[in-house]
Amino acid sequence: MVDAPPHHPSADPRPAGEQRPAVIAVRGLHKAFGDNVVLRGIDLDVYQAENLVVLGRSGTGKSVLIKIIVGLLRPDAGRVEVLGQDVTALKPRELDKLRVRIGFSFQNSALYDSMNVRSNLEFPLRMNARQLSTAEVDERIVEALEAVGLPGTATQMPSELSGGQRKRIGIARTLILKPEIMLYDEPTAGLDPVTSAEINELINEVQERYHTTSIIITHDLTCARSTADRVAMLLDGRVARMGSFDHVFATEDPRVLGFYDYNFVGTDAP
Length: 270
Fold this sequence. Notes:
The structure is a single chain. It contains nine helices and ten strands. It is α/β, with parallel strands linked by helices and 270 residues long. It has one domain: Rossmann fold, CATH 3.40.50.300. The strands form two sheets. The protein has a six-stranded mixed β-sheet, with helices on both faces. Strands 2-1-4-5 form a four-stranded antiparallel β-sheet, covered by helices on one side. A hairpin with a 2-residue loop joins β4 and β5 (85-86). α4 (134-147) crosses α5 and α6 (193-210) packs parallel to α7 (221-227). The longest helix has 18 residues, at 193-210.
């Protein structure tokens, strides 16, 4: 594991005496697609049992970053360490074992439309936890549905669910393997403000109940302010600001302030 890095001038200092290990450590990460340079030397630590929000405009490389973290994309340069393992050096079978310890909540929920809720939740267990008995599978399904506040939906089809309910079931399907790390990709995208607030609350409840370490990818400042222990602001392929939500926006940088104003225009946000 990598210990907390030295204080950086643009970073909000961590509380005195708090030196938790870095569950995810990213160093010097570069990624380009042809002439489109997306990541230009990302350095990032995610500490045990914290919610880190990675914030930035669309196209700033937020989703590329988490795809590299789980080994779905390979970086052009740099190193990614997850749960003590160098992701870029793992063989496919080793990478599959690591991914079982990581929950990935996709933007579109990624449910199988031909399966009911129970079958959607059962699928990852049949693929990755075949040693479980039928009773244990049933117990996991009940627990996951209760954790996301939808205990009576096991027999429903995804088409019968609202957008917010689909998002919750997607999170339940991720939780059912009891991951140590949760990765949320735009968890509030396409949701109305009330449902978005419910998803933000659920993310915090998951952290409290399962003590997960989470990265939350978003451009939604309300989501960031509601869920983040720390915020990493991506600008021009780099981490430009790091710290608490208030610290990140306590700056005269017009790029950061413009992002804040655009998100909260017409609101009473402080």
